[in-house]
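The material for today's practical consists of a large collection of protein records. There is nothing in a record beyond a sequence line and a structure line. Backbone structure tokens are a discrete shorthand for how the chain folds in space. Nothing more is needed to start thinking about how sequence determines fold. As an example, a complete record with its sequence and its structure tokens follows.
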Amino acid sequence: MDVLRAAWRAEYINAPREENTQEHCIFCEYSKEEKDVENLLLVRGQTAFVMMNRYPYSSGHLMVIPYRHTNDFVSLSSAESLELIHLAQCATEAIKQALHPDGFNMGINLGKVAGAGIDAHLHLHVVPRWNGDTNFMSVTAETKVLPEALSATYERLANAWRTTQHL
């Protein structure tokens, strides 16, 4: 039997699980630190920021996250809502330029039952998709194959982001 190893997943599988609360929220912590490259944080806006998903569904999987710690979509202010969508538009354009996907999935999972891995702090996923990217590996083996390291994808997206400033 052949074995395909996805060693990058071991970090996620073996990581201690801490409850995400306002006192301990990875999104709040990363947004306050000045380690953007290490934290895969691409862009800082006024009310929201964009970061790469460390455990992506596909290469280039980004998240748009309000700075304010909330899991209540309805509580977003007009400014937060507007910037969340604007940054998602810019993210989509940057991904198009850097990675040339065939399409996108975008969405917000509100609550654990809806699939939110971090349900205490809402975030909008921007997930690039390619024809044929759902194949036997993800369907039967629950394994994703990413074509490059996160750091390389980060650099490609950071470079592409600079040209999306017109949006």
Notes: The chain has five helices and five strands. The first strand starts at residue 41 and ends at 44.
